[in-house]
Batch of 3 targets.
Target 1
Amino acid sequence: MSAYAALSQAGYRAYTRDRTTLFFTFAFPLIFLVVFGLIFHGQTVEESGKPYINYIAPGVLSWGVGNAAVFGVGFVLMQWRRDDILRLIRMTPTPVSAVLASRYVLALGIGAVQAVLFVAVALLPSFGLELDGRWPLALPVLVLGITAFLALGVIVGSYARTPEAVAAVANCLMIPMAFLSGSFFPLDAMPGWMQSLSRVLPLRYLNDGVSGALTGDGSLKDIGVACAVLAGFALVLGAVALKTFRWSDKS
């Protein structure tokens, strides 16, 4: 527990001192919300008749939270391994679980702040998001989503050896996934084959769960299914992350 606490405190201090990363972690999703929200303000999706904001806000929020989890842990593990910090940690009685748990609690905190800030902006009259009464159900969906994407970030960070490699791999995963999962464009308006492909992507279920909780788009069963699938992704990706975790580039 002392190792976990020390690593958590060190991670928090390092993150808050990096003003550039701190700013763009929260500003980047909001930029997409502002752009898409203003472009499609007052418009509805032809296929469903629902306001665009019902798709844009939950989708961009889900992508932003997942993106932060992947990039956050991916860059840190790569840097710690490159700078031999992980090797030094390994020489102490610190298990892998403590290292990853310290990053996990930080990712949950960042995700919580992102969600609160994002929803607060989306509720402004300029965007017009209206929260459904079951919005608290978004919390377990976000926790499971962050868990799954953090595990994906651990895998990326365990293999990538340079910042450029982390950025390239993470972007190749997250940007196509955003479009294929309906974060930037409603799935209802996509071809059937793209809708089918989206069912194998974790971001699709994070979008569905957050959307169902925040806007009421979907039943309680749909939210439950999203949580169950995200839990499955978290377990599988977590097992792979533990198996592929490396203390150094030589091991």
Target 2
Amino acid sequence: MSSRTDGRAGTGGTRGPFAADPLDRSAVAAVGLITLFVVALATAQLTAAKVIALPLPVALPVVGPEITLPGAALAYALTFLASDCYAELYGRRATQVVVNVAFLANFLVLALVWSTLAAPGVNPEVAAAFETALGPAANVVAGSLLAYVVSQNWDVFVFHAIRDRTGRSMLWLRNVASTASSQAIDTAIFVGVAFYLAPTLLGVGSPLPGSVLLALGLGQYLLKLAIAVLDTPIVYLVVGAVRE
């Protein structure tokens, strides 16, 4: 019988990121960032169907007096904050694993929601309200999933392409540049698929006219770009706290 202790030992073993120190700063940060990423992503998936309007202090060309965007915008922006912090601390390959495993987890969220909606409810009114609030539209699901897998992988690629040239310096540049470019891709794919291609090809609702699509996409992107700039100090705080 081997005397080697492994993760199956009754005491919990000595393997894993917390084996040497249960409060290891790097390990705690890794778990925390992955948790933030997954929670924000699941929240975004559940809230994407609600469209909200944010009034602007002045009307902007093309956009108009308000920004129209999915309710998932803030939650989804947090995924880029989490992935950029994770990419800076743990590298490209580890971040790609997180991004793509979380993409698969999207389908689990949808399956669990759909199974709950399909189950008979005791109170018909509550069941109807639940389905109205959480029943994901096919066009929104198609647009959000495709936008996610493309934009998040692009974000990781650009972040590390810049890091390869700058080293640890200029974190602000790779945070803003990667998020700004990936959010542009995300917005174009989501708006284009959810509100034009899916309605046209799948017959889910009516496709929006070009001027409305442009206003919808540009308004969302301006807000996402502002969030990308404003979250840069938070990225510095997280990375600095872990590296101290």
Target 3
Amino acid sequence: MSRRNQFNGICHDILGTFVSRYNDHDGYWSLGQYVALLERLGESQLQLTLRDATEAPDNRVIAASEKYYRGAVLRMMEANSMPQVWLANATIKVSIVAPAKVACEIEIVSDLGRTYRSERTITVRPHDPVIELRRTDRFGPSNQKGR
């Protein structure tokens, strides 16, 4: 029998793939692309909405990530025999907390109003295609196709 506290494990696992070097978009690490976007916009935080499709963000990396991780949460819920109605809201936040440091947090809210969270702070530099090599293999959640 499934229970809502399984959202704790889902938060942990989703965040683990989110901060992974295998989380890339168009061959480059997605997290580095988020940091570069934040620096270009002069912002310190961005939020990905995972519950429902929202207006298309101005950035295709964010739109692709929202779509991929929305599906990942639903796939993990299905694997745990959890009904989709238990998911009231889900977000992933990326916040610059220091030079070359970001805090990533996933938050899932159940239909009963309980919030489940997982957070990690990691070192990441902004994406720079001049000095980075593009990934060419298809290992991991490469290019966020959900395979």
